[in-house]
Design goal:
Elements lengths: L1 H10 L3 H22 L3 H45 L1 H6 L3 H51 L7 H42 L9 E4 L7 E9 L8 E8 L4 E6 L5 H8 L4 E10 L2 E4 L8 E2 H6 L6 H10 L3 H6 L7 E2 L8 H14 L4 E5 L7 H12 L9 E5 L11 E6 L2 E6 L1 H7 L2 H13 L2 H5 L2
Parallel strand pairs: 1-5, 4-10, 4-11, 6-9, 9-10
Antiparallel strand pairs: 2-3, 2-5, 7-8, 11-12
Helix pairs in contact: 1-6, 2-6, 3-5, 3-6, 5-6
């Protein structure tokens, strides 16, 4: 968007050339008519003939510019994904795959830029050639059309001066045209972005009383883009107040999308979600504002020292605060640049807990912390005896060893619920959950060993 805004700003310097160029061309032709008479029509005819040629070249240039901006958007999007997930990319050695994707997009971009440059070169060549061509043709016609027409020094130098005056507006036209073409593409893109439809919030029903469930999904289907297939499909799920519900599934099964649908961040296809009470959300990628640790946790709320210290201890932050200069008053850089991933995740979790909401949506908050810290956080916060006991908790997790302690497990696959029930019930079914647990056990050892029970 910043590039598009810059293009619109650049075109403003050419606005006055639109009318001044026309005025200069008109006056130049008028005075040339006074000097050379009807012979000037031959030169004007050449200019008129070149107008459709320039129009075709300009239209093609605009089409290329539209394609180029789309390729640029794709490249910037994938570069943002690479930079935000660079650790994962390095862990799995995905650099060659992503490098090839970026290079392919860059090749397309450079190919379009080359074609656009060639088009612009032709436009510039024609518009620089026009005054010379017009001069030669006009003088030739003037001298040949009538034997009485004498091209003396007075007429020749006066006409050449007028042709030179004509040269400037004609030579400026390519830049004006190019700038207007690019600005028109940018204007359309900005208009599409700023005039885009808002998300329809009607699919999320919020109730305060006379409803016995904390969250209810009713035939809920949601998508990230109205033009694509539903990411979450026909989900029916009832979550009672005070329950700890774990959402599990393979990578890409729709766990994070299910949480986003609850928050109203997805397009509704059909069905609805009913929510009773306030929601606190802990994202997978922690969000940290530029300020002190205390400011990040309080997030505008009044300080309750006893509760504040209790949350710091439960989130295993006390030891970190002892190391940091200034303790909880230590300044955090932009996006938490001077904190580790685990510290940022725990501060994000502490902030959500401090808000004392009715429902907690936790998108894999234990993924960025060590195993022993994860166990401490689960026992002190999320578990049956934690700070959030009595609160409704939806926990997206890959930490299978905590699942025996949750009230209900929801197994997702391809955006739909495959199974749901208690830990023992799902094990007895020997379905999708049992397969996930078997895979996990092979990699890490028995569940009892992982939990230390």
């Amino acid at each position: 968007m910043s590039v598009d805004a810059q293009k619109l700003m650049d075109v403003t310097s050419y606005f006055h050339l639109l009318w001044s160029d026309v005025l200069q061309i008109t006056l130049s032709i008028y005075f040339l008519w006074a000097e050379l008479g009807p012979s000037i029509l031959a030169g004007v005819g050449v200019m008129v003939l070149l107008i459709p040629v320039n129009a075709i070249l300009a239209a093609k240039s605009r089409a290329i510019q539209v394609k180029n901006m789309k390729n640029k958007d794709k490249r910037l999007k994938i570069m943002n994904e690479i930079l935000s997930g660079i650790k994962i990319l390095k862990y799995f050695a995905w650099e060659p795959s992503f490098k090839n994707q970026v290079h392919e997009l860059r090749k397309k971009e450079l190919k379009n830029l080359l074609t656009f440059g060639q088009m612009q070169s032709v436009i510039v060549f024609l518009l620089y050639l026009t005054p010379v061509l017009v001069s030669v043709i006009t003088f030739s016609v003037y001298a040949l059309v009538d034997s009485n027409n004498v091209l003396d020094a007075e007429k020749a130098f006066t006409s050449i001066t007028l042709f030179n005056i004509l040269r400037f507006p004609l030579s400026m036209f390519p830049m004006v045209i190019s700038s207007i073409l690019q600005a028109s593409v940018s204007r359309d893109r900005l208009e599409q972005y700023l005039g885009g439809d808002d998300l329809d919030p009607s699919a999320i029903c919020r109730l305060d009383c006379n409803f016995d469930k904390a969250v209810q999904f009713s035939e809920a289907s949601f998508t990230w883009d109205q033009d694509s297939e539903a990411t979450i499909r026909d989900v029916n799920l009832d979550i009672m107040p005070g329950q700890l519900v774990a959402v599990v599934g393979t990578v890409g099964s729709g766990k994070s999308s299910l949480m986003s649908a609850m928050l109203g961040e997805m397009e509704n296809v059909h069905g609805h979600i009913t929510i009773k009470g306030t929601i606190a959300y802990v994202p997978q990628q922690s969000w940290i504002q530029n300020g002190t640790i205390r400011d990040n946790i309080l997030f505008g709320s009044e300080l309750d020292e006893k509760r504040y210290q209790q949350i710091l201890e439960a989130c295993a932050l006390l030891q970190d605060l002892e190391v940091l200069p200034g303790g909880d008053l230590a300044e955090i850089g932009e996006k938490g640049i001077n904190l580790s991933g685990g510290q940022k995740q725990r501060i994000s979790l502490a902030r959500a807990i401090y808000q004392n909401s009715d429902i907690y949506v936790l998108d894999d908050p234990l993924s960025a912390v060590d195993a022993h810290v994860g166990k401490h956080i689960f026992n002190k916060i999320l578990g049956p005896k934690g700070l959030l006991k009595g609160k409704t908790r939806l926990l997206v997790t890959h930490s299978i060893h905590f699942l025996p302690q949750v009230d209900e497990i929801v197994v997702l696959g391809n955006g739909t619920i495959l199974e749901k029930g208690s830990y023992s019930t799902l094990l007895a079914k020997k379905g999708s959950f049992a397969k996930i647990l078997k895979t996990f056990t092979k990699q890490t050892g028995p569940v009892e060993e992982a939990t230390g029970m």
